[in-house]
Design goal:
CATH superfamily of the largest domain: P-loop containing nucleotide triphosphate hydrolases
Structural class: alpha/beta
Shape: globular
Bound molecules: adenosine-5'-triphosphate
Keywords: ATP-binding, Helicase, Hydrolase, Nucleotide-binding
InterPro entries: DEAD-box_helicase_OB_fold (IPR011709), DNA/RNA_helicase_DEAH_CS (IPR002464), Helicase-assoc_dom (IPR007502), Helicase_ATP-bd (IPR014001), Helicase_C-like (IPR001650), P-loop_NTPase (IPR027417)
Largest sheet: 8 strands, mixed
CATH architecture of the largest domain: 3-Layer(aba) Sandwich
GO molecular function: ATP binding; hydrolase activity; RNA binding; RNA helicase activity
Radius of gyration: 26 Å
CATH class of the largest domain: Alpha Beta
CATH topology of the largest domain: Rossmann fold
Number of helices: 24
Protein name: RNA helicase
EC number: 3.6.4.13
Length: about 675
Amino acid sequence: MSLTFWKPGTAGPGSTLDRATESEGNVVQSAPNHSAYSIQAQRERLPIAKHREKLMYCVEMYGVTIVVGQTGCGKTTQLPQYLFECGWAADGHVIACTQPRRVAATSVAGRVASEIGCSLGEEVGYTIRFEDVSDKERTRIRYMTDGMLFRETLLDPLLSRYSVIMIDEAHERSLYTDLLLGVLKKHVNLLCSAIRRKRPSLRLIVSSATLDATSFLEYFTSGTSPEEATVVSLEGRMYPVEVAYLQEPTPDYVRKAAEVAWNINLEHGRGDILIFLTGREEIDRCLEELAELLPTLPRGASRLTLLALHAGLTTEEQLRVFEPAEQGFRKVIVATNIAEASVTIDGVKFVIDSGFVKIRTYNPTTFLASLSTVPVSLASATQRAGRAGRTSSGICYRLYPASTFASLSRTIPPEITRTDMTTPILQLKSLGIDDLMKFEWVSAPPAESVLRALEGLVSAGMISDNGRLTVVGEQVAECPVEVGVARMLFSSKEFKCGEEILTIAAMTSVQDIFVIPDGGAQGAIAELERRKFTAEEGDHLTLLNAYNAFKRYGQSSSWCKSHALSFRAMSRAVSIRSQLKKYMVRFGLPIESCEGDAKRLRQCLILHVHPTSVLFTRKARTGWVIFHELEETKKTQIRILTEIEPDWYVFKYSIANDDFHSFRIQLQCRLLDHGHKYQSRHNGATR
Ligand SMILES: Nc1ncnc2c1ncn2[C@@H]1O[C@H](COP(=O)(O)OP(=O)(O)OP(=O)(O)O)[C@@H](O)[C@H]1O
């Protein structure tokens, strides 16, 4: 295996995009190691520093400032600090910076806290779902996921504690970024009149490295005065990133990624490696390929620390990739696109881009969501390359030919056009946006998605016939969980099982409770441990058993280890449960126990989570589903339809009997291993 395989490798690799950047002549080329400078000196050397005055002037003068600047120039870490230094956080006001992903919000907050010299959660904090590391009184700069800020608009539609809201990585067009922009556009319209008088300080910044600034400018100036918005382009990037392409497309980019990483380790000096693949299975496979090569590592070569980074990991597990490699080791981080934007992993010098991403699409006619692997957009490819060259010069290896890069589309369709609109519409209604036709969408969702969502909400009693939210709808909208889970909490009152349903709701909000290694003796032992918790009545009760045992045995990490449970996941469930409990108390929902009456519990579950467990073999295409919550257990065969996200599949099955006559059910289910039954996650049923 040799890198001569690379097409250019030496002379003139790179797309026009990357070349243009490098030839701007404002790259810090001969910089010594980034960490050789003090943090303050590092800040001053960032390309954005030259634009500080202009940026602050624009924020002062305009309601909306659209900022476009190269990856790594300093938008995410510096802009909120400039605002802070210029007094935008005076009088108890807060500067918010949203991120589409929690790993970006948490890691950037950590970096900015250390730049400012405070502990995380003091002047600088972050807020992601079920995790708030910020202080109501002290925090002045708050990094948060876009979903969390949107949720806050439900409680305070004027977002009155914020002086500036920065919507970062707007090019990603995540669902909640779009919804926030829509809601804030309403503010901008109003800014010209009433609210500006009341709240003269509210400002909006929309930023990205790869934003179509003109369309955002048009969006924000339509219906208002042109003086309301402006664009600032930041020139310059920190360090050059060389780009290399494959000569021919590869039939197996996972294997190729492992091969290239291996070669880099043999042929290049220091620098960690970041690989972009599409999902967890691919990440595991790539790590396995590399692990198999490890015994052949020549003497003298750096040893490898193999790390995964994907959304299924807990925050702590995700943050592990930011820890420096030990002496003599090189980190190889295999990630999904969650590491694509706003993330700086100090030491990463080499990026390997598979050129693919998994996106979720939704079919409102069949209520089916599915995941499909598609080529990345130009914006994503640029962001990925930008992960090298942040703390030193770097190389990005694209596992596709240069001609493919040229044919990539600029962006992928916004998430709002390919998602189930049930929860967002409930939330918009809760914000008082009753006429969805008049809402100024950045991109409108398909009419059918909106209609199906409205139908579902009306039939669930959350929206009344006149289109207004009912009291229950209002309360469900406020709960920080999916509509289905929130409904389950509300019905626990009827079945007198709030205590247990609260636990089940918390446990189903956490991923990977059981730690079962793939195969081998360890896997078999762990599997036996898991069976100790297994309840005949279904997997929700298995989760309940595991939680109760965890509490009974003192929430101990060693106890978790010996019972194949993840201590982190279990602790997170405890914290989520206590947060959900506050909502139940607020809504006057009794937290009473069903006292072991599993039937009552199952009756509550059956209403909102379909009564199924699945008997399955990993990677098999067919299996059995068991209806536990019916009076008698019934079995029927099922068939995989599609993968909706890594390890989650949609199955279809039909059953003909008195209870379910020719009932077609869509079941989303996670396959674990070894033919063991596992819980269903979120189900819809159609006749
Ligand atoms: N954790 C960190 N460790 C070391 N340096 C860092 C860290 N985070 C940021 N930096 C430095 O600050 C620079 C600016 O990072 P920042 O995230 O603000 O850029 P950005 O313009 O928002 O980029 P992007 O568009 O890629 O998010 C990086 O290029 C890097 O030099």
